UniProtKB/TrEMBL annotation:
Pfam families: 2-Hacid_dh (PF00389), 2-Hacid_dh_C (PF02826). This is Glyoxylate/hydroxypyruvate reductase B. InterPro entries: D-isomer_2_OHA_DH_cat_dom, D-isomer_DH_CS, D-isomer_DH_NAD-bd, NAD(P)-bd_dom_sf. Keywords: NAD, Oxidoreductase, Pyruvate.
């Protein structure tokens, strides 16, 4: 095999470079940013990037490209007709996000249950007033999409004695799920109607775009909370805003949006029953260490001609 040239569109620490170089001392690793990457692509064999970065110009400038790896789980900007028709491998970093995202979801649930959004606002005006609170114990969480992130959420929710419902394409035996639903719309509506908390944990594909709309919010309890830690475009944002305004649901914790950054004139900003975080649910000091470890494992498999992990179906989009 000729010397492999790897272009990485993210800064790497010395320990990360050392881990990759240990796979094969002869590989060449070039760290670039979006503006400088194009000039590096003529000799690139492997591109390491993020799923939301525009990749088509880089692909068109890379005649020797064999493999694209996403440091993210989502690969929505890495799939286009030319890639789908080519033999180029596409992998992602699925499996490394579960711990921080699950903790983020728990933080949102606990914040609403213990009245923290109201308490924080009262603190700002020095107001001493108790508000109703609740417990997660014995409440029901519905997880829409039971991949690696959904399973970690289920595991942590079950540890808090919650009832766990989930939906996924294939019905399997799941250790931390009390009831698993198929992914059809009727089953989804049935599941949503039982939940105190609903979490979207799906990949964004052509089939999940605008999957959640007003009928789904109408099926939920008026006391339920809705969380999206996946991708903004899975949810019809106008319908979500309407559901909150019409009090079809109690509140929402939102980490992702149709447009990011969230525009200043978006009504979600001013809703007291909404917690907004800036697409940070998966952030962790350990993120890049986990991502590089996964990529180094796959790089070893690639060099040795072995089966690779986290191969993305370029037609399905995940």
């Amino acid at each position: 095999m000729p010397v492999l040239n790897i272009v990485v569109l993210n800064p790497l620490a010395d320990r990360h470079l050392a881990a990759l170089q240990a796979v094969d001392p002869d590989i060449t690793i070039t760290v670039a940013d979006e503006s400088s990457a194009l000039e590096k692509m003529s000799t690139c064999h492997i591109l390491v990037t993020w799923g939301w970065l525009e990749t088509r110009p880089l692909y068109q400038a890379a005649p020797h490209l064999e493999w694209i790896h996403a440091l993210s789980a989502g690969v929505e900007r890495l799939i286009f007709p030319e890639i789908q028709a080519a033999d180029i491998l596409l992998t992602n970093s699925k499996g490394i996000h579960g711990i921080p995202v699950a903790e983020h979801v728990l933080a949102l649930m606990l914040a609403f249950n213990r009245g923290l959004p109201v308490s924080i606002r009262q603190q700002e005006v020095k107001q001493w007033q108790r508000m109703p609170t609740s417990e997660l114990h014995d409440q029901t969480i519905a997880i829409v999409g039971l991949g690696s992130i959904g399973r970690e959420i289920a595991k942590k929710a079950k540890a808090l004695s919650m009832k766990v419902l989930a939906s996924k394409q294939e019905i399997t035996t799941e250790l931390f799920v009390d009831k698993l639903y198929p992914a059809d719309n009727d089953s989804l509506l049935e599941m949503l109607g039982q939940a105190d908390f609903v979490v979207i944990a799906l990949p964004l594909t052509e089939h999940t775009h605008n999957l959640i709309g007003l009928p789904h919010f109408a099926a939920m309890k008026p006391s339920a909370y809705f969380f999206n830690i996946a991708r903004g475009n899975i949810v019809n944002e106008a319908d979500l805003i309407a559901a909150l305004q019409q009090q079809l649901i109690q509140g929402a914790g939102l980490d992702v949006f149709t447009t990011e950054p969230l525009p200043a004139d978006n009504p979600l900003w001013d809703m007291p029953n909404v917690i907004i975080t800036p697409h940070m649910a998966s952030l962790s000091p350990a993120y890049l260490d986990r991502a590089v470890k996964l990529f180094a494992d796959n790089l070893t498999r690639f060099v040795q001609g072995r089966d690779m992990i986290n191969l993305v179906d370029k037609i399905k989009g995940y």
